Amino acid sequence: MLLRTLSAALLSLPLVANAATFTTLVPEKSEIQFHYEQMGVNMDGFFKGIDGSLHFDTDAPEKAQVTLEVQMQSVDTGSEEADSEVVKKEWFNASDFPTATFKAQSITPKADNEYEVAGLLSIKGHEQTIRFPAKVETTDEQATFSGSFSLLRGDYAIGEGAWSKFDIVANDVRIDFTIIATP
Predict the structure, then answer these.
(1) What element of type H or E holds 118?
(2) Share of the chain above pLDDT 70, in %
């Protein structure tokens, strides 16, 4: 009877996930979306080409190393015409700057599975330090890093010449990301 009661009590305890280290980015499952306004209309798109390296230990998140590279030619706005336009010199200048890069400089735990991330974002040869909240959900097989941040396209010279004004295409751009990694 005591053994049965003890077994039942142990089975009712919540399971604690084992510590894990995630080192392999899974590009085909990862996603980077962008959201902006054009002539007062909400617009969306995403990048299909994501690569990089990471090392995230659930027991030592502050020691994490993350570098993400986004292939600018992989943009998908939902329109072939717009896709071919935004890779031109006035916008992403993808021929001279084929990748945008984010390199984490610090990852600070804030709450369970919640972090403040700071790092250097480089787009089109322009760099800015950005900070944003992120969440990390883990299983033994996978870590899902998600979050959102805003940037000003003017800070990165995205939209030059006639497009440098913000009356047609807004300056504010929101980036949402989901990055998948495995051990």
Answers:
(1) strand 114-123
(2) 90
Judged by DSSP in three states, 82 sits in helix
pTM (2 d.p.):
0.87
Ramachandran class of 90: left when φ > 0, alpha when ψ lies in -120 to 50, beta otherwise: alpha
Domains defined along the chain, listed by start: 20-182 (2.40.128.110)
pLDDT, mean of residues 100-117: 97
| Amino acid found at 79 | S
* Per-residue pLDDT tens over the stretch 127-145: 999 999 999 999 989 999 9
Question: Cα–Cα distance between 73 and 90 in angstroms, integer?
Answer: 14
What are the residues whose beta carbons fall under 8 Å from the beta carbon of 3, sequence distance 6 or more? none
Q: What are phi and psi of 95, to 5 degrees?
A: -70, -40
Which DSSP symbol is given to 17? P
Q: Which residue has the higher pLDDT, 160 or 17?
A: 160
C-alpha to C-alpha distance for 24 and 12, rounded to whole angstroms = 34
- Residue of 123, 125, 120 lying closest to 104 (CA atoms): 120
